[in-house]
Design brief:
The protein is mostly helical. The protein has 5 helices and 2 strands; from the N terminus they run ααββααα.
Length: about 110
Amino acid sequence: MANNVITKTLKVIYQYKILLMFFVLWAHVSLLNLFFVNYRGPVFLWQENSELLTIQVHFFIALLTTFFYLTVSKLRQLKGTKKFIIADKTWLLLSLVLVLSIGFLLL
């Protein structure tokens, strides 16, 4: 009985996994930007974090990351079926683009 409930729950979660991943990423980025710690303790940035531009930037980061995940997943599926061959240099280039984009967002 409990195993059946767990199986149904996992099926529902798997059905909406991309949407859940987007919301988890959005919450993660928003919480990371919510505060920082200095010598006096944590400083919460409530006002800056509730501005529309900040929320839009967090939304865009989560959306971009989700699209990147979907693209890489689709490429891996195509590579697994041997319909589409991706060279190792392409994966290296995509990894470099990912690292540079993370570096750009951190600056």
